[in-house]
Design goal:
Layout: H1 2-17, H2 29-42, H3 49-55, H4 69-76, H5 87-102, H6 112-125, H7 136-150, H8 156-167, H9 175-183, H10 193-207, E1 213-220, E2 227-235, E3 238-242, E4 250-255, E5 261-265, E6 274-278, E7 283-287, H11 291-310, H12 315-412, H13 417-475, H14 479-540, H15 544-547, E8 556-559, E9 562-567, H16 568-585
Antiparallel strand pairs: 1-2, 1-7, 2-3, 3-4, 5-6, 6-7, 8-9
Helix pairs in contact: 1-5, 6-9, 6-10, 7-10, 13-14
Length: 586
């Protein structure tokens, strides 16, 4: 009953939506009442006008909404339908209400009766959603059926072009657009109106009236045993036979069920192509016009009996259900595919974001490393500049002091031989002190160089450990990321090798600095020993006691070899003494 209600509701939907609206934009109560009365009449359901007034509520959403006309239609009309009504008359009543308003005014190749049959077929093949449309797959099925009934070839390529044009603009056609398509003759070129009409009628009989097969055959009477020509019509559970194909005078029915069977009979009594239909209460002998017709009828009747035994619907209804199920399955698969594509797209976007984040992190790390290298180079340049400046300053001080020493040496040449010998010993002492100072300066320089090399070695080790950690993290990435980061890893490995070489070079330089430091230290010890030795020698010299007598507390002079052995006042006194001796000698 659910399928029957759906079929009835489609025709009622066409009739209801075709009703004229009043000034408020709604269907008037009188027109609803007339429609309900006509529906009750054709469906053989008692009409209750009082129930219409009590249960109906206005609704702008049409007859298939949850409110308004739908509750009344279900409760007081559709639920009371028993199936004992004429479907053609019911559809014709609904067609009369909607055809005048919606049927195209353009001249068509088909008659109004053919248009009515196409409209009924549309209601059978359309989707169960509103507004009603017929999808391209069902349009192709219907056009194929009509083309086969006309006996012409199916133009698949032409329909594919039409289907592509249709899919780009909409999901399907309405009933009136389908009538215009068939009535335009686009897929029945070269066929006259009568051929097209006969083809539509044949498809209508099969799909709507459930006519599985029909045609003239001879039937043997039960009483007179005479043979009479009859028009036989095979339906899913009955075979009706008429005087002629106009179906006006019905002569009887053959009720079919799962217990019936059909058998071929040999030719006899001058009759050929005989077969027998056995039922529970009667047996019918029938003669077909030729062997082909006989085989077709036997096969058709046997197929119908088999369907009755299996409880299956007619072939065209079962095929429609399969097509609908297949479309639903394809739609579900398409939705699932779209959902998976969206998930893959979202995952891909997330992956791209992660890769972009990693790329930015790598760029930031590279920028930081470059900045640190720049700062290190800048610091190194500043240290070199400072060292060069200090070295120049020390050279100037040394040059100045050397000039002073040269001047003082020229004055000391005027001393006696004994003083010269003492000066020679004193000069040797100064050279020893200079060696000691130079050794100390070399030691300080080596110590600074060693500290700088240690700092660079520590920085390189930290950078090496950082690159090594980044390399370990990079190795732990997915195989897809390894391929992408392979070039970066090679560059880092090359940089790592360069850093290792630099580190080894720094190690060698540090070892050389240590060796230099040890040599300077040994020189310093040697110089200290020499200084001590020279001091002992000077202590035993004849005039040394006078030179190291306690003098004034004034600050001592600083020479290029360290503190002087006499004060500035003593130096002035000595100069005066030397000048007096020089004047006396002259």
């Amino acid at each position: 009953m659910v399928g029957l209600k759906d079929e009835l509701l489609k025709s009622i939907w066409h009739a209801f939506t075709a009703l004229d609206l009043d000034r408020s934009g709604k269907v008037s109560n009188d027109k609803r009442s007339v429609l309900s009365h006509n529906l009750c009449t054709v469906l053989n359901v008692p009409h209750d006008p009082v129930a219409l007034e009590e249960h109906f509520r206005d609704d702008d959403e049409g007859p298939v909404s949850n409110q308004g006309y739908m509750p009344y239609l279900n409760k007081f009309i559709l639920e009371k339908v028993q199936g004992n009504f004429d479907k053609v008359e019911f559809n014709r009543m609904c067609w009369t209400l909607c055809a005048k308003k919606n049927l195209s005014k353009t001249p068509l190749l088909i008659s109004d009766e053919d248009a009515f049959k196409v409209w009924v077929i549309f209601n059978f093949l359309s989707e169960d959603k509103y507004p009603l449309i017929i999808v391209p797959e069902e349009i192709e099925y219907l056009l194929k059926k009509i083309t086969e009934a006309m006996g012409t070839g199916w133009q698949q390529e032409q329909f594919e072009h039409y289907k592509i044009a249709l899919n780009t603009s909409r999901e399907g056609l309405s009933a009136w657009e389908l009538i215009d398509l068939i009535g335009s003759g686009q897929f029945s070129k070269g066929m006259d109106r009568q051929t097209v009409s006969m083809a539509i009628n044949e498809v209508f009989n099969e799909l709507i009236l459930d006519v599985l097969k029909q045609g003239y055959m001879l039937k043997k009477g039960h009483k007179r045993k005479n043979w009479m020509e009859r028009w036989f019509v095979l339906k899913p559970n009955i075979i009706s036979y008429y005087v002629s194909e106009d179906l006006k005078e019905k002569k009887g029915d053959i009720i079919l069920d799962g217990n019936c069977c059909v058998e071929a009979l040999p030719d006899r009594d001058g009759k050929k192509c005989l077969f027998l239909i056995k039922c529970l209460d009667k047996t019918f002998e029938i003669s077909a016009s030729d062997k082909k017709k006989k085989q077709e009828w036997i096969q058709a009747i046997q197929t119908t009996v088999n369907l009755l035994r299996a409880g299956s619907p007619p072939p065209h209804k079962e095929a429609r259900q399969k097509r609908k199920g297949l479309r639903q399955k394809l739609l579900a698969e398409q939705e699932e595919l779209e959902r998976q594509m969206k998930e893959l797209q979202a995952a891909n976007e997330n992956k791209q974001k992660e890769l972009e984040t990693v790329r930015k992190q790598l760029e930031a790390a590279a920028a930081r490393a470059a900045e640190e290298e720049k700062k290190r180079l800048q610091t190194q340049v500043e240290l070199q500049d400072r060292f060069s400046l200090e070295l120049e300053r020390e050279k100037m001080v040394r040059q100045k002091m050397e000039e002073q020493v040269a001047q003082k040496s020229s004055e000391l040449e005027q001393y006696l031989q004994r003083v010269r010998e003492l000066e020679e010993m004193y000069k040797q002492l100064q050279e020893a002190l200079e060696d000691e100072k130079q050794a100390r300066q070399d030691e300080e320089t080596v110590r600074k160089l060693q500290a700088r090399l240690l700092e660079e070695e520590s920085a390189k080790r930290a950078e090496l450990e950082k690159w090594h950690l980044q390399q370990q993290q990079t190795i732990q990435m997915t195989e897809a990321e390894k391929q992408e980061l392979e070039n970066q890893r090679i560059i880092k490995e090359q940089a790592l090798q360069v850093a290792m070489q630099q580190l080894k070079q720094l190690e060698l330089e540090r070892k050389e600095a240590l060796e230099q430091y040890e040599e300077v230290k040994k020189k310093l010890e040697t110089a200290a020993n020499n200084t001590k030795s020279w001091k002992d020698k000077v202590a035993h010299h004849e005039g040394l006691i006078r030179l190291i007598e306690p003098g004034s507390k004034n600050p001592h002079l600083i020479t290029n070899w360290g503190p002087a052995a006499f004060t500035e006042a003593e130096l002035e006194q000595r100069q005066k003494s030397w000048k007096g001796k020089k004047a006396t000698s002259e």
